Amino acid sequence: MGVVRQAGEWVNWAGDQRCRPARIVAPRSREELVEVVGATAAAGGKVSVAGSGHSFTEAAMTDGTMVRLDALRGVLEADRASGLVRVGGGTVLRELNDEVAALGLALENLGDIDAQTIAGAISTGTHGTGAGFGNISARVEGVELVLGDGSVRELDAAGEAELLRAARIGVGALGAISAVTLRCFPAFVLERVDAPHPREEVLDRFGELAAANDHFELFTFPYSDRALVLERNRVDSPPRPRGRAAAFLNDIVLENWALEALAATGKALPAATPALARLAGRLAAGGRTVDRSDRVFVNERRVRFTEMEYAVPREHGPTTVRHVVEWVRANRYPVFFPIEVRVAAGDDADLSAAHERPTAYVAVHQYRGMEWRPYFEAVESIMDDFGGRPHWGKRHFQTAATLAPRYPRWSAFQRARDQLDPGRVFTNAYVERVLGS
Question: Is there a domain that residue 64 lies in?
């Protein structure tokens, strides 16, 4: 039965979610995964599948059996003509990007972290930015699930369209994802231009900027009046990667070491946070990069934090940002990290935060070890007023009762859950809180 590790503490990337599974199992094949799940369910146990631990919620936590899909990785099949690529559920996005690039392909859109597994990324609705582009799950053409009874179910649009709409973002509640079929696209090059601007000017032009760029986002510190605008657009020119020294200076020294130093100072001296944030806003300088798409999408994140992110109708994005800034300043709350704002097209996954509406994603962060709850509660209250839907992998305080009215296909997802996991083998405290028992 797979490789069984000694039970021990599991900790997420941020270091603030911990659990002690009864056992941690790493199947070496789909057949071993089937055996693990079937045996656990037959014994009345629960199964939780953990990816790379990049969720800020309790999504992967369990005191039962934790399954790691590390061995179920890599490209299993690929059709360059159609762009369809089938990969193991444990494939880390960084590896996937390299493998599809070798095939002359690329994922259409990506977030700024590539350490997640593909199964974890689609289960929580991981997204990038771009008014005309959906999240990663929107390009999922098939999902292979190992169900609670140990059977294997292949879901695709041709035969199981309704179930696939549920499984594209399943919050880990439908089964263990052993493989995913993605629609990829011909490899492309992006030009990224970063430039600081007055925040109010950017928010006033938010819709215009989102429409004018393939991939648009902004960062702004609540105590600064500036915003760093990131514009990424497809170009026909060849990649021109930055030199190693320039990349190290920007990606490591400025975006990580300097950020860590300023955040740690704010943690030790909370009263200095406004001044430190204004300094950070001034340090957010411009820059230009032309490179392979995934290398432009992704940033290196070494500074640990916790995060909340909400999806609101796109037209309300600027207003919610203004309200968050107003709350922070009115309460002189010691938050140093920036607000991040991205956009996405609507899609049809049952539990997508962007379900059937053009979306603005507004994310807030707090440095590791600092108080975050009052800030996040205030932000959630603001987002509630604008029909906000939380990111499934980031902190929020919602329950199934408060979430159900926000998703037109909530009942359809629950029917899919009843069909695929009637015994609730794939459940834990988080799943029960956000989806019900």
Answer: no
Among 186, 203, 234, which residue terminates a domain? 186
Which pairing describes strands 84-88 and 176-183: parallel, antiparallel, or unpaired? antiparallel
Structural domains of the chain, count: 2
Q: What is the pTM of this model?
A: 0.95
Q: Would you list the DSSP string of 201-226?
A: HHHHTHHHHHHHSSEEEEEE-TT-SE
Give the containing element (helix H, strand E) for 140: strand 140-146
In-domain check, residue 12:
no
For the chain, the residue count is 437
pLDDT < 50: residue spans in the chain? 248-249
What is the Cα–Cα distance from 127 to 115, expressed in whole angstroms? 13
Q: What is the pLDDT of residue 330?
A: 98
Angle, helix 317-331 to helix 373-384, in steps of 10 degrees:
140
Model confidence pLDDT, tens digit, residues 295-316: 999 988 889 999 999 999 999 9
At residue 263, the pLDDT reads 85
Rounded to whole angstroms, how far apart are CA atoms 334 and 320? 19
Domain end, chosen from 369, 390, 411, is at 390
pLDDT score, position 248: 46
Residue 416 inside a domain? The answer is no
Tokens of 143: 């999902």
